[in-house]
Amino acid sequence: MSKAPYFGKMKLLWCTSCNVPILGDRCNRCNGSLVRVPISPPGDVRPAFKCDIKLIKKVVDFQFGEDLGNHVIPENKIILLNKTSYIDRMDEIIFDGKIMGYIRFSPPDMKWEFVPKLPIARLLWKFHCKKWIKIDNRAAQAVISGKNLLVPGILDCDKEIIEGDHVVIVNEQEEVVAVGTAKMKGEDMKKRTRGLAVKIREAEPPSQDEVLPGGQTWRDVINANMKFLEEQENKALTFIKNVVKSVNKPVTVAFSGGKDSLATLMLVLKALGSKIKVLFIDTGIEFPETVKYTLRLLQLLGLEDHLLIKHVNNGVFWHVVKNFGPPGRDYRICCKTNKLGPTTQLIREYFPNGCLSFIGQRKYESEKRSKEPKIWRNPWVPGQIGASPIHDWNALQIWLYIFKAHLPYNPLYEAGFFRIGCWVCPALKLAEIENIKKTHPSLWEKWEKELEKWRKTYNLPKEWVTYGFWRWRKLSKSQEELAKTLGLAQVIHKLKDVPGKLKCTLIYEGEICSVNATESLIKATLNTYIDLDRTSNFLSILGKIKISKKLGFIYLRSKDFTCKIFQTGRFLVRARDNKKFSKKIIEKVFKTIVRAIYCVGCGICASKCPNNAISIVNGRAVVNQSLCTHCGKCLGECPVLL
């Protein structure tokens, strides 16, 4: 299990009089007493939607008995969820000012499970739950003092308990004293005379929980936090105005269809009015609901004429996968080709001198983003200065801002999605994938067919697809542990090379004497024939080109070297320097050929060119040799070289 990142002081208070969460220092409804809720890092609490509550109830019913969910999970109270550390998705369930338990998706079992804490365990026991164990008072004292439960202390138990079940433990007076995980069957607990029965997760002396009043709405939460929300909004508005003054470029808002970009859009509109442009990239792998929602929202706001949209051909992603394999969390080529590249093209088309983009980026989203400044330049999107007015906002603050303004939000949030993005994103958790299978079966079937091709190519087990191991080129530590748990450690491995991808093999290196000096000579070969026209066009980035189709080769002359590339894939480099330098030239030539062959037309290289020498024609980058000055600024940022 990975450790949850810590992004600074976490603060969640609860007004016990109003029974609502408080983000600031006081309740603006009653100014009553507050208690601190000890949430786990990173502390990005959010509302539980109806679909979340329905899921929790369903899982509680399955584990602890029919209709128990309705008894212990209230419909008339404010419920929050807090994402915390786990191998997949896990949320703390918060209401009545307490962390009541956890809902988490277990990858080994591929199912959801409810993990109770003591406050909700007492409710479960009150309504005659299953999975209970009754122990003598001596064992109860041992458990409360920090010991695990041994078989000799058990008086009675639910015989249907199986190993791994989450259980509720009561003393002789039938008072709840602990919760834990069963380490043997209920039948064995009754039969055996020794052994570890339950690993205790939480224990404390018997107590009665205060039942807080129900009937709260999100409007009550907004009213209780009104001053805090207004203060944070004013800070964001001031930030936006100050950035606009200091940057002095055309203002845009990058809209993705998610809650964060929605809040950002509304803040910018409030600060600046409608004299802005809205950038939306339809990556070709967006959920259909996201595209429809975006167009509908901008029409509702009267901003349809302010929308600058880039539709990426949906064949781009599949072309990338065909050539480079499935994207991974450690190999996010699709983000470059389907989002950042098209964003660069859009900005270059409408803002040749660059623009300022307000982006709904928050520090709670990842450890990397937590370390980034509120104003930045993205090396993959030249010409864009990014700024985030909501960098320090947590998810609850975002949602309260949306609820307060009665803003329509993406309907996918009501369908069990807590994060909006591309439906084939390798950042998906298994819980999200299972949800997509239910809500968008045809989309996921298409993706699984593609994954099956790669699985068979690499002779991988079916679990490579089932358990989402495709989401990494090299498995993370937690995924390696999962592979071990499933008995797959020896057959799940990283994808080292994509079959058929261009390779370069060194076949000779030495020195030759020229008229004025000794030159290094290196010969190499590619594992394929090359297209002379396409390759020569791209090699012109490095120097002057001559092509002989009759003899089947390209001659490249640069100020530092010469190179002859044959149609058969063999090439040689001559340079007036040492062998180390010549090898670097070989690498540069090879990478340029790779770019020529596998170009997906993302446009990043075009945006890097200061002379407008590169354009996208029929989905591929093409070099205008008469404009190219061989400056090399387009060489570095190419996603096919990741």
Description of the molecule:
With 642 residues, this protein is an alpha+beta fold. The strands form 6 sheets. It has a 6-stranded mixed beta sheet. It has a 6-stranded mixed beta sheet with strand order 17-16-15-18-20-19, with helices on both faces. A 6-stranded antiparallel beta sheet has the order 21-22-26-25-24-23, with helices on one face. A hairpin with a 2-residue loop joins strand 27 and strand 28 (620-623). The relative contact order is 0.08. The mean pLDDT is 92.
| Number of beta-strand segments | 28
User: CA-to-CA gap between the ends?
Assistant: 28 Å
Quote the beta fraction: 15-25%
Summing up helix and strand content along with how strands pair, one would put the structural category as alpha+beta
Overall pLDDT metric: 92
Uncertain regions: pLDDT < 50 for 5+ in a row? Answer: none
Any idea what the radius of gyration is? Answer: 30 Å
Biggest sheet, spatial arrangement of strands: 10-14-13-12-9-11
General shape? globular
The number of distinct helices, counting runs of at least 4 residues, comes to 20
Concise overview:
This protein has 642 residues and is α+β, with helices and mostly antiparallel strands. It is built from 20 helices and 28 strands.
Q: Which secondary structure elements does this structure contain, and how are they paired or packed?
A:
Blueprint: E1 13-15, E2 20-22, E3 34-36, E4 45-47, H1 50-64, H2 68-72, E5 80-83, E6 90-95, E7 98-106, E8 111-116, H3 118-126, E9 132-135, H4 137-144, E10 149-150, E11 154-157, E12 166-170, E13 176-182, H5 186-191, E14 196-203, H6 218-224, H7 226-247, E15 251-254, H8 259-272, E16 277-282, H9 288-300, E17 307-311, H10 315-324, H11 333-350, E18 355-359, H12 367-370, E19 375-377, E20 384-387, H13 395-404, H14 430-439, H15 441-457, H16 463-466, H17 477-485, E21 504-513, E22 518-526, H18 532-539, E23 544-548, E24 553-557, E25 561-566, E26 570-575, H19 579-598, H20 604-608, E27 614-617, E28 620-623
Parallel strand pairs: 9-12, 15-16, 15-18, 16-17, 18-20
Antiparallel strand pairs: 1-2, 1-3, 4-5, 5-6, 6-7, 7-8, 9-11, 10-14, 12-13, 13-14, 19-20, 21-22, 22-26, 23-24, 24-25, 25-26, 27-28
Helix pairs in contact: 6-13, 7-8, 8-13, 10-11, 14-15, 18-19
